[in-house]
């Protein structure tokens, strides 16, 4: 492993290019994986932070483009949010997996060392964007921003203060993959709760000059 070096003063494209060469943890050594950096406008009020890229994201090099991303897009729309207005990223930038019987790559939850290694990249993204709200999807994203004591079940659905030095508020909710894994008998209820949390984010959208709600002016 090598020390994580974030170029000072870098914009998002420069950060993405630098992160592509990161060897800060063992996930970068897995064959057939790449750094999947965040995507979206550099000037926005809303950042969504997930756990880590999945198999589809790793193959395509973009965050939230697999099944969980499709569910997220649907929930955002129902909550009154547009994917195009937010910046989406992950707490951990590499796909972590084990191989099963055959070629299928089976997702493994990131460990604390992976979260720690990638934290400087997430901090740099937030420092460039300076959102007013960060939606935290699941335990890994919460632990990255709020520490190991974070618990989704205890903190979800309410606005929380951001990390020290940040002006952003945090809103914790489930990761969309948790909705997909829910028991079919309760999945609609779990999805409804997820949408309700995202509606809290939509209600926190800042009003720009002129009084109409929307993204802040550039």
TrEMBL record:
The keyword Protein biosynthesis does not apply. Residues 37-199 form the Uracil-DNA glycosylase-like domain. GO terms for molecular function: 4 iron, 4 sulfur cluster binding; deaminated base DNA N-glycosylase activity; metal ion binding; nucleotidyltransferase activity. SUPFAM superfamilies: Uracil-DNA glycosylase-like (SSF52141). GO terms for biological process: DNA repair. NCBIfam families: UDG_fam4, UDG_fam_dom. Pfam families: UDG. This is Type-4 uracil-DNA glycosylase. The keyword 4Fe-4S applies. InterPro entries: UDG_Type-4/5 (IPR051536), Ura-DNA_glyco_family4 (IPR005273), Uracil-DNA_glycosylase-like (IPR005122), Uracil-DNA_glycosylase-like_sf (IPR036895). It comes from the Bacteria. SMART domains: UDG (SM00986), UreE_C (SM00987). Belongs to the uracil-DNA glycosylase (UDG) superfamily. Type 4 (UDGa) family. Keywords: 4Fe-4S, DNA damage, DNA repair, Hydrolase, Iron, Iron-sulfur, Metal-binding, Nucleotidyltransferase, Transferase.
């Amino acid at each position: 492993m090598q020390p994580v070096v974030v170029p000072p003063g870098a914009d998002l494209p420069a950060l993405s290019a630098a992160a592509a060469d990161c060897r800060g943890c063992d996930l970068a050594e897995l064959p057939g994986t790449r750094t999947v950096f965040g995507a979206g406008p550099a000037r926005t009020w809303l950042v969504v932070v997930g756990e880590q890229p999945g198999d589809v994201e790793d193959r395509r090099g973009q965050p939230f483009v697999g099944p969980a991303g499709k569910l997220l897009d649907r929930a955002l729309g129902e909550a009154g949010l547009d994917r195009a207005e937010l910046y989406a990223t992950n707490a951990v930038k590499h796909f972590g997996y084990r191989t099963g019987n055959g070629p299928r790559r089976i997702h493994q939850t990131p460990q604390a060392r992976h979260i720690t290694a990638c934290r400087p990249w997430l901090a740099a993204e937030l420092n460039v964007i300076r959102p007013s709200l960060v939606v935290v999807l699941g335990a890994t994203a919460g632990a990255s921003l709020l520490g190991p004591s974070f618990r989704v079940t205890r903190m979800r659905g309410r606005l929380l203060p951001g990390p020290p030095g940040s002006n952003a508020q945090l809103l914790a909710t489930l990761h969309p993959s948790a909705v997909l894994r829910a028991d079919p008998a309760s999945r609609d209820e779990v999805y409804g709760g997820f949408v309700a949390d995202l509606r809290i984010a939509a209600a926190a959208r800042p009003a720009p000059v002129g009084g109409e709600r929307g993204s802040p002016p550039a």
